[in-house]
Amino acid sequence: MEIRAGKASDFTDLLEIDGTIDSTHYLHVDYSASESSRTWRLEERALREAKIVANPISEDDRFLLRQILAGADEGVALVVIHGERPVALLLAQPIAAQQTLRVIDLRVDSDVRRQGIATALLLMVIGEARTLGLRAVSVETRADNAPMYRLLPKCGFEIAGLDTRRHSNHDLVKESATLLWYASLD
Prior knowledge:
- The chain is of the alpha+beta class.
- The protein has a single domain (about 1-15, about 55-185), classed as Aminopeptidase (3-Layer(aba) Sandwich).
- The chain contains four helices and nine strands, in the order βαββαβββαβαββ.
- It has helices at about 10-15, 60-70, 115-130, 145-155; strands at about 1-5, 20-35, 40-55, 75-80, 85-95, 100-110, 135-140, 160-165, 180-185.
- The chain has a seven-stranded mixed β-sheet, sandwiched between helices. A two-stranded antiparallel ribbon has the order 2-3.
- The longest helix has 15 residues, at about 115-130.
- It is globular, with a radius of gyration of 17 Å.
- The two termini are about 30 Å apart.
């Protein structure tokens, strides 16, 4: 396997990486609020039914990927090649105002998962952020994406917050709140 910077010629093949999310657990958010305080606690629980979602790259992320691969926009596109084809992608973009590198997408083809590829990509992007003199790497993930919320702490990420209304006003009920993660480089 080879990890390298993505090239414009990789674009079509990168869209074929199987980014299916396969999860049996979620992080339950126990949230309470009063006039002067807000608290939340996370607890891993089994999903009512296994979650298997295709997870294609969104149109906005496709556009950003094409721009970064072509050198028309700032960012990082790391690609893992195995057997002449891309099997993994990490897409990240610097957010200058926050001095962070934001991971937009991380996907590993289902045929080669559980081999340390995602870990290697995250550690490489952390190194890139250090090289750029940034203060942190950020990632957003859903509370029902167990593979990601189990991987991120292993790579030095901590939960920094949550958004319970990113996708709907009923995200907590639907077990799908958005978790905000940071790997501090200070």
